[in-house]
Amino acid sequence: MTSPPFDYGRHDEGRGMNYWRHDPALRKEARRVYPEDEFEWAEDRLDEFGAVVGDTIADNADVIDERGPELSTYDERGNVANEVYYHPAQRENERLTYERGVVADAFRPPPGRDEPLGLVHTLTMQLLLSYVDAGFVCPVSMTAGAALVLRNHDEDGHLDDYFEGLTSRNRDDRIEGAMFLTEEQGGSDVGANETVAEPVGDPSETRTYELTGEKWFCSNIDAQGTLVLARRAGAPEGTKGLSLFLVPHETRDGELNDQLYRRLKDKLGTISVPTGEVEFRGAEGHLVGEPERGFEYMTTMLNWERVTNAVGAVGIMGRALVESKVQAANREAFGRPIREYPLMKRDLVEMAVDYEAALAFSLEAGRWLDRYERDRDDREAFRLMRTLTPIAKLRTARMAVENASYAMEIQGGNGYVADFVTHRLLRDAQVLPIWEGTSNVLSLDLLRTLEREDAHEALLPLVEGFLADAEHPYLEPLAETVSEEFASLQEATLALAAGDDDYAQHEAKRLADYVFDVVTASLLLSNAQRELDEDDDARKAVVAERFVRHMLTTPSARGIADRDAPALEHFDAVVRHAPLDPAMLGEPAPADD
Ligand SMILES: Cc1cc2nc3c(=O)[nH]c(=O)nc-3n(C[C@H](O)[C@H](O)[C@H](O)COP(=O)(O)OP(=O)(O)OC[C@H]3O[C@@H](n4cnc5c(N)ncnc54)[C@H](O)[C@@H]3O)c2cc1C
User: Fold this and answer.
1) Is the CB of 430 under 6 A from ligand 1?
2) Could you tell me which residues are beta bridge partners of residue 235?
3) Cα 298 to averaged position of ligand 1 atoms, centre (Å)
4) The dihedral of CA 424, 425, 429, 430: what is its sign?
5) pLDDT digits over 350-360, tens only?
């Protein structure tokens, strides 16, 4: 078994390796957020999945990036064909991933268990998958999301056959999900949707409708389990008037649905998922749940998508980090491997801290979402899921762009060339802040949650609980710093809640960042204490210290004259995961703020 401290110089590039084994931070976070019995069952499977992702799926992902899906809108006789061609490498990746239960395990008891696993399992597998193909995480995530919507809202079960397909692990009956919300006149402003739905037959009896209109961004365009928002005649304007329909690629009779896949978008990245424009021309749609509650139902999917976006971002950051470590171990400049230079040591330590911060926060959001989806009466879980989700998506998406960009720089000129994976990482990362809600839209969502759910109150026991864990003398003063910041954060939150709307909106993104910094700092401190207690390892204490210092203090002269350089002292611990003897922890430098 590959064990730390890792020798990244053994690798030519950041693959052909088992990402699960090479990521002790992920393994520990997963152990924290899974229920114990589920983690016990999952551990070997994640280990096996990490190996397949790092090998065959990674190789296929390179092929797919060059030979992405192609659309034939018409056949040779001019009839609508709506046919998407996928390279065999893509088909193989689908099989390798779905058969391993990425979606199925969260909805049906997998082999060896009487109960399904929680959604944190799907999230962890998606995170690993995103190390090699963030584009493919999109259909996987929408498949799970569509299944979740049907499980929660298709109360009379008239769409059970679709639910079965979405949650199947077998190639023969497996289908994928998608969601078509965005229209040309509005993506953020979903209430501006103009697609209409006409009942087929008596409106009081039928659940079948014909949809007419256009959708402007449709990822996984040919999915069989596509959820679509549309408005019935006479329904109110805005999101309140939208109903939700399942609009399949083929009807239950095996006929092509009445829609036209106009063209695929020529995108910067996420090549493996075909994103296109769809014209509904009287397409058959099955009403999900009750009419005019479509947007409410879609929030189930949107929350899920946003957390998966966050773990997707973490996967990209994980790959960017591992590629950078391998490069730094192998590349020589001025006669030495570049990892020996202080600036490069610092770069890698900072990337590792960023990665572990994004990882901890995202899986914490995932933990609450999972808990809520296990019990939708759990108000605490709901409020925390609603608060943490937009922030996780917002912040990690930006972090992924920055880290992918810096990883490109660490590769030097090669990093900018399409032959090297950093090229794809940056292209893929760039969509993360845009789809599933832009940073501004997510910040406004946070404001709404604070107002409607008093979500800041739910943060109180969470953050205080984490801080109370941090008892070690090295961690205690750091916890005090975070505690003071938490008090200031609460003041800021109340000021915005009481303030006028325009000002609150003006500050909303900064508030989201502030919540991220405080919650993450407290969580990393709690994790650090656990690793001290359980593993006698002080590595995470250094990671937590770096995060607190960097995000929540403002040392004089920016700390440049402080002679505080843990990247020089603890490089092997932080970057190569060498265990760190707690006796090596000095006093944390005073927080000069
Ligand atoms: C590759 C890709 C795949 C996609 N796949 C899908 C899909 O499968 N299904 C789907 O439904 N959609 C999909 N989308 C669409 C995506 O969700 C939207 O593009 C996104 O939500 C933004 O909407 P918009 O493009 O209409 O931009 P707009 O809503 O016009 O936003 C433009 C800018 O205005 C800002 N803005 C908007 N409102 C406010 C406000 N109140 N305050 C401050 N700033 C504001 C936004 O932050 C943004 O910066 C996809 C997009 C991409 C790029």
Assistant:
1) no
2) none
3) 16
4) negative
5) 999 999 999 99
